Amino acid sequence: MGSCISSQSAKSALPPLITTRLILLNGSLIQFSRPIMVSCVLGKDEKTCFVCDADAMETGRNLKAIAEEKELRLGKIYFVLPRTMLNRPLQGKEMAELAVRASAALSDAGSMGRRSRRGMVAP
After folding, report:
1. Which InterPro entries match (predicted)?
2. Does position 7 have pLDDT exceeding 50, yes or no?
3. What is the distance, to the nearest Å, from the Cα of residue 26 to the centroid of all Cα atoms in its chain?
4. Which residues, other chains included, contact 56 with Cβ-Cβ below 8 Å and sequence gap of 6+?
5. Which residue did the predictor score with more confidence, 120 or 83?
6. What are the distances in angstroms from CA 11 to CA 2, 5, 17, 68, 71?
7. Which of 9, 10, 17, 48 would staple 120 via disulfide (CB 3.0–4.6 Å)?
8. For residue 121, which phi and psi values (nearest 5 degrees)?
9. CA–CA distances in Å: residue 50 to residues 71, 72, 122
10. Gap between the terminal Cα atoms of the chain
11. pTM of the model
12. Which burial class, exposed, middle or buried, applies to 46 when counting CB atoms under 10 A from its CB (0-12, 13-18, 19+)?
């Protein structure tokens, strides 16, 4: 009879997956396992939206777009935002809404990840 590793052991043996996390306008989350260009992420929405680094967002400071020829980096969180928010100060209410959106998206992604790993066995 072959030996198996319990799902508990299999989960801890998996290396952490480092991804680029992109939170869309509708609050959904897309994760990329490799660097990706901003232009590829925006596609046909490049005229109406921009990508912003979550770490660069501060209340009262202007939002800046990441250039379309730049790559999004692994391990970072980004937002797709409407162009109407570009180059104007981020209001406290908007920052709170974005924080709630990010929290919900990341929480949903985390619970899906736990479900998909449950029951894994290694030969």
Report:
1. PADRE_dom
2. no
3. 13
4. 64
5. 83
6. 19, 10, 12, 37, 30
7. 10
8. -130, 150
9. 13, 13, 42
10. 11
11. 0.75
12. middle
Provide the residue count of the chain: 123
Q: What is the 3-state secondary structure (H, E, C) of 31-67?
A: EECCCEEHHHHHHHHHHCEEEEEHHHCCECCEECCCC
50 touches 80 (CB < 8 A)? yes
Tokens describing residue 79: 């937002």
The pLDDT of residue 106 is 86
User: On the CB side of 70, how many CA atoms lie within 13 Å of its CA?
Assistant: 11
Place of tokens 């777009």: 65
User: Span 57-82, mean pLDDT?
Assistant: 96
CA 119 → CA 50, 61, 116, distances in Å? Answer: 40, 46, 8
